[in-house]
Each structure stands twice: as C-alpha cells, then as structure tokens.
Design a protein that fits this description.
Number of strands: 23
Strand content: 25-35%
Bound molecules: adenosine monophosphate, glycine
Radius of gyration: 21 Å
CATH superfamily of the largest domain: ATP-grasp fold, B domain
Number of domains: 3
CATH architecture of the largest domain: 2-Layer Sandwich
Number of helices: 14
CATH topology of the largest domain: D-amino Acid Aminotransferase, Chain A, domain 1
CATH class of the largest domain: Alpha Beta
Structural class: alpha+beta
Helix content: 25-40%
Shape: globular
Length: about 425
Amino acid sequence: MKVLVVGAGGREHALCWKLAQSPELNELYCAPGNPGIAAAADLVPIAVDEIRELAGFASAMAIDLVVVGPELPLSLGLVDELLARGVRVFGPRRAAAEIEGSKVFAKEFLARHGVPTAEFVVAHSRAEAERAARRFGLPVVLKADGLAAGKGVVIAANAAQLEQGLAVLFDERRFGNAGDRVVVERFLEGEEVSFMALADGERLLPLATARDYKRLGDDDQGPNTGGMGAHSPSGLLSAEKGAAILEKILKPTLAGLAEENRRFVGVLYAGLMLTAEGPQVLEFNARFGDPECQAVMLRLEDDLLPILAAAAGGGFAVSRLHFRKEAAAVVVLASEGYPERPVKGEEIEGLAAAAAHPAVEVFHAGTAAAAGRVVSAGGRVLNVAATGQDLAEALRRAYAAAAEIRWPAKRFRRDIGRRLIERFDASPEGFASS
Ligand code: AMP
Ligand code: GLY
C-alpha cells in the first residue's frame, strides 16, 4: 500500500515509525513531516491546512490510505475533500470532527445522548457568562467554542481570575470567532485520564489507556500546554473501569454521531475526569492525542496499517487490539518560552547518543533541518519515548536518554509519572493495570 500521513509533529513521527514496520507498506509519504520523520517517510512540502493541495497530491499519487494526524485539517474538511476524490482516509469528516472543533456542539451533543459531562451553560455575552459563573460558584471553567490550540480554556479559581478570563474571551476576543460562544461549566475534581479508541463508524477498538501531563511545570503548575509528557498504561483504570467507560461513554457517543448523520471514522478520544460520581467527559478529540499516541504506539503489537485501512474501508476485521505488557513513557523536551513564544532556531546535539539507549525512540515534534544540522523549530521540540518492564523503568530510560540531548533553551518536566510511582511503591496491589 501507498500511505500518506498528514502532520508534522511527534504524533505523526510515531505513526510513521509504526506504519513503516508493516509488511503491507510499499511507500510512505508524510506532509509536511519533519527531519525525524524523513528517516521513515518521503516528505511532501504541503502544509496541513492546504487541504485541496493535499487531496490533489493523494489522488495524483494514487495513495491507498491517508492517515490524518492533527485536528486542523479535519475541521477544514480534508476528509470530505479526499472522499470526494475517492481516496480512502482514516479520519472523520468535518461534521463528525465537530465533536472536537466546537465545544458548544460537543457539550450539547453529550447532554442529548446522556453521556456524563460537567453541568454547563452556553453564554453568548459577558453578562450571561457572569450569571452562569455565579450559579456554579468558584472555581469555574470557561471554554471558547472553537479550536484554540488548547489555550481557549480558563479555570478561574477566584474572582480576579474570573474577571481576567471574561476579559480575554469577551472584551479582548483573543480567540476571535472561537470566542463568540463560551461554554461555562462546573469545575470537576479528580484525576484526568485519556481514553482513545479506533472507530470504523459502527464499532470501536479501544487503545491501551494513557495519561497526559498538560501543565507546563512540575507538580502541575503553570499554564496548560499541548502535553508535556505521557505514559501508558495510565495506572488509573482497572480493566472493569475501562470497560465501563467504553460502554457508557464511547459507545453512546459513536452511536449518537451515527444517528445524527455524523458517522465517525478515526480516533475517538475522550478526555475524562475520574470524579467521585464516576468518569465525566472533559472533552472529546477527533484524533490521536499527542503525546499519548507516542506511548501507545510503542506498546501496540498489531500491524497498524491493515487496521486503519479496514476502518477507512469496509470496517474492522478484528475484534480487539493487542498491546505489550510493558509500560511506555514519553518525556517532551520543549523550548523556553513555550507555550507563548518559544525560542527557535537553536542547534540540537546528542540525538544519536539518546537514540542509542536501550528501548528508546526519539520522536521529532518541532525540529527543522538547517545546513545538515537539526535545529529547534517549535515549542515542543522532541519526544523521548521508552518502554520498560514497568512504568518506573520506562521513565528511568526516557529520562536517561533525554539527558543526552542538549540545546540552550531546552526545558522539560522532571516529574512525569512520579506521583503514580510513589503511590505504586506505597501499595502495589492497589495499582490499576490499564
Ligand atoms: P479541555 O480542552 O476541555 O480538555 O480543557 C483543558 C483542560 O482544562 C483539561 O485537560 C482539564 O485539565 C481542565 N478542565 C477542563 N474542564 C474542566 C472542568 N469542568 N473541571 C476541571 N478541570 C477542567
Ligand atoms: N495531549 C492532549 C491532546 O492531544 O489533545
């Protein structure tokens, strides 16, 4: 098969790395890709938002399967564009991707289908938002409706933060049209876990569980980011809880989408809060999580290519996926200034030494090639990923390899998985296996 992966980050590097191992693969392309991905795929210089050009390339090259990584091309309708040209694609059409692209749609949809999520109000004005915030009490959560690269969510713990959040969303309109409608919702307490499943429109194949660390700093301090580290398993869900999430949250969501003429093919990703009242949906994404995908791909035993092709074609031929017992961990190496204004263009050293560590893969997220060297070119620059007998070993390996990599503005969290390992050491029998 000839395959095109769309995207340029660590997630797409991990997908290309995995797809490149398939005996069914003949040619692998990635648009636009990055210098790390170039080891596994031929890079195509088309940006992820140039959806006509991407579809034109796929049809001219007789690509057998397109795999879409990021959310932006999904909400721009890349899948619709490809299907109109008869190109098979793993990813949701624009209407189905609205589960991620519009927080208002997602919340109202979840409420319609009885899927547990925080109580909410859709506010069209500052006054409406203030009223809703008073009703829910502090802390309260404000969310811009449209895609805002993970930055459109304000968690206001006190009156000053609420005032600032309202000003950003309604007065400054920092998120433009994305802030025309704002979801005001009740703050949920608990631990967060990501639950992803592959969908063929009718059926779901759950992926191994993963946990993402969204805050920039150690001990979950600082601003939200796209994700500073991840591991799989999440360590937070028993097999029974995982099964309950599939039944009560993912299945009704997939069925509801089909019922509303938004049949969903791709990755259905639930961001969940494990509350005292049970798991509640924080958000849905319409794609693999980044960096969760990197951890999960290291554990996936099955050949990914025929499974994605089946989802995009006639439907799954298998009833479950297989994951290695080992754990996988990902440490994100970012540049100073991320997420606001990361320093870019610095030469990176030690990549080969890091990759030579046992059970380690170094995925590129925001790098560029300059005169034969690799330089930083984004906020999240590299993902150092490792497997191990358990989470502690996977993390030790990832951190040891990460220490080999150097550039002046390199920054990373030093506490990925730490609290979980402490808890495990305290009571190993209470540790959830998935
Ligand atoms: P979202 O993009 O909706 O997932 O929100 C980003 C982050 O904000 C989540 O990963 C949570 O850490 C936090 N968050 C969102 N909604 C809530 C909520 N209702 N209660 C507590 N935290 C939330
Ligand atoms: N890591 C969270 C996300 O991909 O949305």
